[in-house]
Amino acid sequence: MTTPNEMTDAPPLPISDQDIYEAMKEIPGYLDITPGDFKALYEIVYRHTLERIALSVTAEDIMTKTVITVRPETPVQEAADLMAAKRVSGVPVVTKDMLVAGVLSEKDFLARMGPDGPKTFMDVVARCLMARGCAALAIREKKVEDIMTSPAVTVDPSTSLLEISSLLKEKKINRVPVTDQQGFLAGIVSREDIIYTPLIQEI
After folding, report:
1. Rounded to whole angstroms, how far apart are CA atoms 99 and 155?
2. Which tens digit of pLDDT belongs to each residue from 134-191?
3. What is the C-alpha separation between 124 and 152, in angstroms, rounded?
4. CB under 8 Å to 148, separation ≥6 — which residues?
5. Are 161 and 40 contacting, i.e. CB atoms less than 8 angstroms apart?
6. C-alpha distance from residue 41 to each of 9, 14, 48 (Å)
């Protein structure tokens, strides 16, 4: 699990003694503090700030609400075309009523390409270059429901940024659907959404 300390181990940029001296000169009056103490204080404040933000920002604050989805009955070929066109590596699988039935990702495609199929994208490239045939042919006639991961790992809108970060790390996934109490899709949070959280970028 990701802990607050793991998320906030260091400031965004290293601080030099000269930086500290220049900053202290801009503060009116006498400062009874050494540069070393000043630096230590700054790093502690920085960690506490990130921890506060990580606990206060929720999935609802950062999720993408316009979500690219596929249905369980969608042909795998169609799903692959959509993901390629939209440049996404994973999508929620939803019923016609927008209930989350699973998640479809690149890992699902790779994992179902036969017992001796490729396990990484570069395996696919290597196999094609060696003219050993297309590994994807093994799943060409399948539906999304045949290869998707189900049940999906989900969070609710009130889940904190810290909890989401921990979940992504623990499950080794890149995105997580956000669902309401009934299981209907409300949005999705990806690692990119976390990285580009406005409050995080301002620090």
Report:
1. 13
2. 666 678 889 999 999 999 999 999 999 989 999 999 999 999 999 999 999 999 999 9
3. 26
4. 72, 93, 101, 102, 103, 104, 108
5. no
6. 14, 14, 11
Query: What are the tens digits of pLDDT across the range 19-61?
Result: 777 777 777 877 788 888 878 878 877 777 777 777 888 999 9
Token pair of 110 as six digits: 């790779």
Enter the pTM of the model: 0.71
DSSP secondary structure of the chain: ---HHHHTSS-SSPPPHHHHHHHHHTS-S-----HHHHHHHHHHHHHHHHHHHHHH-BHHHH-BSS---B-TTSBHHHHHHHHHHHT-SEEEEE-TT-BEEEEEEHHHHHHTS-TT--SSHHHHHHHHHTT---GGGGGTT-BHHHHSBSSPP-B-TT-BHHHHHHHHHHHT-SEEEEE-TTSBEEEEEEHHHHHT-HHHHH-
Q: What is the DSSP string of 153-203?
A: P-B-TT-BHHHHHHHHHHHT-SEEEEE-TTSBEEEEEEHHHHHT-HHHHH-
CA distance 195 to 203: 12
- What span, in angstroms and rounded, lies between the C-alpha atoms of 123 and 134? 11
Distance CA 175, CA 167 (A): 10
What is the distance in angstroms between the CA of the first residue and the CA of the last residue of the chain? 24
